[in-house]
Every structure is written in C-alpha cells, then in structure tokens.
C-alpha cells in the first residue's frame, strides 16, 4: 500500500510539472541561433539516486503518459524540484510562475483535475 501511495504522489508531482509546462510554455522552449523554438511536446527528466550514483532518465512525451506509464519510473519517498533555464529566453518571472504552478497543484491536486 505504501508503494502505491508513494507512486501516486510521484505521479501527482509529475502531472504538476506537465501542467506547469503547459501553463508556461516558454519554460519548454529553446533558442536555436536567433530563433525561439516552442516545443509541441513535453519531455521531463527526473534525477534518481541509485547505489551507483545519480541517474537522470528522460521521460519522453510526458504529457501523454498515464499513471501506469509513470509507475515504471522507480518512486522515491522525497523529491526536490529545481529549475534551470536560459536567461536569454526566460526571466525570473516565468520561472517563478512555473515553480509556483507545480507547488499549487501538488498542494491541491483538484487544481489539476479542474484545470484551474
């Protein structure tokens, strides 16, 4: 039962990150020369500590994944959320809104279900 609850929490945080990226698409954009490329897909990397060191698998097309798909990423009892970004593309305002969206959805998952 604890494994299920931990997995469900990880899924909630994962979906919160997807929601935040959908609400702040500039965080998912990249600079290519003089162009800003807004990606039409969401890939998320989750750092996982293992006995052999840190592993950071990339979850491709995260916005199309369900609970069963995420359950295949080994859950951990605690998770830190950090954001790195290119200041040429994103200023602190968008970064704060992105992280705040994750926090809000994790604290109140109804926001994700109701898309508010």
Automatic annotation (TrEMBL):
Alphabetic keyword roster: Acyltransferase, Signal, Transferase, Tricarboxylic acid cycle
Q: Which InterPro entries match?
A: 2-oxoacid_dehydrogenase, 2-oxoacid_DH_actylTfrase, CAT-like_dom_sf
The record, for Pfam families, names: 2-oxoacid_dh (PF00198)
PANTHER family linked:
DIHYDROLIPOYLLYSINE-RESIDUE SUCCINYLTRANSFERASE COMPONENT OF 2-OXOGLUTARATE DEHYDROGENASE COMPLEX 2, MITOCHONDRIAL, DIHYDROLIPOYLLYSINE-RESIDUE SUCCINYLTRANSFERASE COMPONENT OF 2-OXOGLUTARATE DEHYDROGENASE COMPLEX, MITOCHONDRIAL-RELATED
Species name for this entry? Linum tenue
Q: What is its EC number?
A: 2.3.1.61
Q: What is its pathway?
A: Amino-acid degradation; L-lysine degradation via saccharopine pathway; glutaryl-CoA from L-lysine: step 6/6
Primary enzyme class: transferase
**What cofactors does the UniProt entry give for this protein?**
(R)-lipoate
Protein name, per record: dihydrolipoyllysine-residue succinyltransferase
Q: Which residues form the 2-oxoacid dehydrogenase acyltransferase catalytic domain?
A: 13-72
Example GO biological process term?
Answer: tricarboxylic acid cycle
Key word Transferase present: yes
One annotated GO molecular function:
dihydrolipoyllysine-residue succinyltransferase activity
Signal peptide (from-to): 1-20
In which domain of life is the source organism classified? Eukaryota
Q: What GO terms fall under cellular component here?
A: mitochondrion
């Amino acid at each position: 039962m604890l494994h299920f609850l931990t997995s469900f929490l990880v899924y909630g945080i994962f979906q919160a990150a997807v929601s935040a990226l959908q609400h702040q698409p500039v965080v998912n954009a990249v600079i290519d020369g003089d162009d800003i490329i807004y990606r039409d897909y969401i890939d998320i990397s989750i750092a996982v500590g293992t006995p052999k060191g840190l592993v950071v698998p990339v979850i491709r097309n995260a916005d199309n994944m369900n609970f069963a798909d995420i359950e295949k990423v080994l859950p951990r009892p605690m998770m830190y959320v950090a954001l790195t970004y290119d200041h040429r593309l994103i200023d602190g305002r968008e970064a704060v809104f992105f992280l705040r969206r994750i926090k809000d959805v994790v604290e109140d998952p109804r926001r994700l279900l109701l898309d508010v």
